[in-house]
Q: What sequence folds into this?
């Protein structure tokens, strides 16, 4: 069974093709700058690759281009598009309607559109990808996999905000959480590594990239998570502010004459690591600047790591115990020095990082980095959201319940 996964942004399309008999990746690709004269199409399938530049009008044309790449006689991996059994689509916001992945029908599409108000920057683009996929592959099932679904097990005490309750009832204002597909994948993998049933795992998963979130998991279910109604809440990120006193917004609106659009732009695109450092949203650039003596870069790193340590400590408190802490994402996997900062002063909580294991990658990309005496194990595990999407899609086709990824 071959499954195609699609992840659509406003001007991009990312895709992967899996053979689910062994969950092997057959090919992956991307179409960038959709709608411009300089659109770029790249695909890699083993040692075979495609790299072309030229106008791609819209997402439908981008999906058609992806299919042409997958069936290319010299660089493709399929004899024809009919080999694709189903398509799995990443959808950012499922609201309260979806606690699991579903086969897409008119009712599902209506619910995704309903949540445009909750995710105006993401759900419309995700819908464009769904419609483009259905146009290009009309005779196969299409599945929606929601970033928010894993977090639908969070209880009221964790998802409600301290505002009038009727705003939740009427407008759905609550914590939803995101990166759920990544956190769920990490749950599968760490349970497998620990040789324990997934439904018994209790611990903390840290997805740290340009977007960052931390999830507390209790007995295999999301218990709390750092992102909120939108991906803006929680940790400091590449360009997002994370947690902030709402009173700051009132002050800025008055003192800087900022309207709603200006505040939105400030908090989502000009804050976070970029705003603090004044250099970049890329942690690598900031780390280099800090090593060269930039005070603002060093401050940005300190604030970033402190916020992560505070969330981990808070989640250890609310969970009461933890089998493991997992680091993933570009920063979580590769920034060993920052992991040391994030986990400092945690020995009284049973968390002890092994400084040698932390920097030693010889044991592989998935590895234990805590000491043997650490009560809470610490792991680095690369995430694979696309495989999780493919797994969900295959299971829905088979009519089988969700099973852990090996």
A:
């Amino acid at each position: 069974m071959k499954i195609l996964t699609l992840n659509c942004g406003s001007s991009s399309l990312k895709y992967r093709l899996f053979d689910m008999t062994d969950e092997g990746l057959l090919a992956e690709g991307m179409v960038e700058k959709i709608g411009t004269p300089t659109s770029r199409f790249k695909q890699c399938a083993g040692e075979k690759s495609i790299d072309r530049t030229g106008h791609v009008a819209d997402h439908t044309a981008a999906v058609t281009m992806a299919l042409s790449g997958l069936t290319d006689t010299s660089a493709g991996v399929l004899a024809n598009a009919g080999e694709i059994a189903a398509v799995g689509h990443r959808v950012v916001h499922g609201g309260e309607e979806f606690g699991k992945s579903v086969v897409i029908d008119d009712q599902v599409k209506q619910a995704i559109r309903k949540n445009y108000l909750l995710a105006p920057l993401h759900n419309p683009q995700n819908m464009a990808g769904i419609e483009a996929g259905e146009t290009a592959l009309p005779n196969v099932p299409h599945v929606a996999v929601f970033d928010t679904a894993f977090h639908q097990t969070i209880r009221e005490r964790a998802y409600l905000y301290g505002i009038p309750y009727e705003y939740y009832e009427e407008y759905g204002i609550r914590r939803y959480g995101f990166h759920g597909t990544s956190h769920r994948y990490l749950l599968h993998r760490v349970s497998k590594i620990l040789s324990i049933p997934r439904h018994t795992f209790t611990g903390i998963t840290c997805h740290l990239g340009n977007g960052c979130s931390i999830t507390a998991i209790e007995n295999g279910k999301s218990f709390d998570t750092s992102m909120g109604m939108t991906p803006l809440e929680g940790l400091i990120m590449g360009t997002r502010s994370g947690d902030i006193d709402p009173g700051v917004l009132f002050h800025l609106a008055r003192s800087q004459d900022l309207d709603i659009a200006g505040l939105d732009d400030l908090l989502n695109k000009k804050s976070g690591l970029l705003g603090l450092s004044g250099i970049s949203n890329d942690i690598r650039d900031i780390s280099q600047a800090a090593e060269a003596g930039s005070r603002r870069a060093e401050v940005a790193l300190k604030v970033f790591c402190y916020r992560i340590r505070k969330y981990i400590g808070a989640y250890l408190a609310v969970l009461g115990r933890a089998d493991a802490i997992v680091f993933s994402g570009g920063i979580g996997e590769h920034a060993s020095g920052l992991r040391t900062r994030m986990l400092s002063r945690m020995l009284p909580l049973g968390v002890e990082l092994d400084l040698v294991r932390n920097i030693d990658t010889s044991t592989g990309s998935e590895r234990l980095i805590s000491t043997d005496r650490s009560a809470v194990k610490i792991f680095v595990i690369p995430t694979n959201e696309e495989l999780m999407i493919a797994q969900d899609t295959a299971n829905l086709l088979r009519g089988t319940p969700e099973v852990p990824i090996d």
Summary: The chain has two domains: 2-146, 196-385. The CA atoms of residues 32 and 202 lie 39 Å apart. The chain is about 40% helix and 20% strand. The chain has a mean pLDDT of 95.
